[in-house]
Design a protein that fits this description.
about 110 residues; mainly alpha; Arc Repressor Mutant, subunit A; three-stranded antiparallel β-sheet; 4 helices; elongated
């Protein structure tokens, strides 16, 4: 899912971040992203499933058996080791950018 410049698109990174806490089905991923971004990022089902397909194809997430008695149609996904490493690398890249922005006084210093 990495772009030609090696970065991960924000929506895909949020999917990886949400799955870092454990497996989820699609609707739960959508709701969690909405919650953690406080509504700043809304991912529609079509977009989510296009992202999921690419993340599965890249080996960053896998579909797993879910034990959802309410709806057997739900598909559950889990982050793979490869996906975790990709997310960690992207977060490290972003942290470096934030550090540079702070050094250049483009954002406030982190409060300790």
């Amino acid at each position: 899912m990495a772009q030609p410049n090696g970065t991960i698109p924000p929506a895909a990174l949020y999917v990886l971040l949400v799955l870092s806490d454990g497996e989820r089905h699609g609707y739960a991923i959508i709701k969690e992203i909405d919650a953690v971004t406080q509504g700043a990022l809304t991912i529609l089902p079509g977009t989510l499933y296009r992202i999921i397909k690419q993340l599965v194809d890249d080996g960053w997430i896998v579909e797993v058996d879910g034990s959802d008695a309410k709806d057997e149609r739900r598909r559950y996904y889990r982050l793979t080791t490869r996906g975790r490493k990709a997310a960690q690398a992207e977060v490290a890249r972003m942290a470096m950018i934030v550090s540079l922005a702070r050094a250049r006084r483009l954002m406030p210093s982190a409060s300790v």
